[in-house]
From TrEMBL:
The keyword Isomerase does not apply. This is PaaI family thioesterase. It comes from the Bacteria. Residues 58-133 form the Thioesterase domain. Keywords: Hydrolase.
Length: 148
């Protein structure tokens, strides 16, 4: 897979040392940017800084934005299992525990719990520092690269 573009490393700011995806994804680009940080143990963190545009009418991070972060993170966690296929989310369950606030850096961490021939199962959590914001679990169905 040498023809894939390399991730772009952030040089300064809140996400110095993190990476941005080099792939074009209109939806993720619209609500992001999302930042990615691989761990030495192979785990991956996915993060977003909460901006005014991410807030709902109550002044806290919109639940749909948190779900988008969880969905993106679940896919990122599954990338090693999707080397020869694409994937689409079949199921995403979430428990909202506390709000994300303007200026917060929300970070998703998690793991793949099972990878079968047609489905991949994962779970994760989204935190601001030590404060749990949301937990989630989901199922990805393997699909062609076009999503069919």
């Amino acid at each position: 897979m040498a023809d894939q573009p390399k991730p772009l490393q952030v040089k300064d700011g809140d996400f110095k040392g993190w990476f941005l995806s080099p792939f074009h994804d209109d939806y993720v680009n619209h609500i992001g940017p999302f930042y990615y940080l691989p761990g030495a143990d192979g785990t991956m963190q996915v993060a977003l800084k909460v901006e005014q545009r991410h807030l709902n009418g109550g002044g806290i991070m919109h639940g749909g934005c948190l779900l988008s972060l969880a969905d993106t993170a679940l896919y990122v966690f599954a990338l090693d299992n999707l080397q020869t296929s694409g994937g689409v989310t079949m199921q995403l369950d979430a428990q909202f525990l506390s709000p994300g606030n303007l200026g917060d850096i929300v970070i998703a961490t998690g793991e793949i719990t099972r990878a079968g021939q047609s489905t991949i199962f994962g779970r994760g959590q989204i935190k601001v520092g030590d404060r749990m914001v949301m937990t989630f679990s989901g199922v990805i169905k393997r699909a062609s690269k076009s999503g069919a």
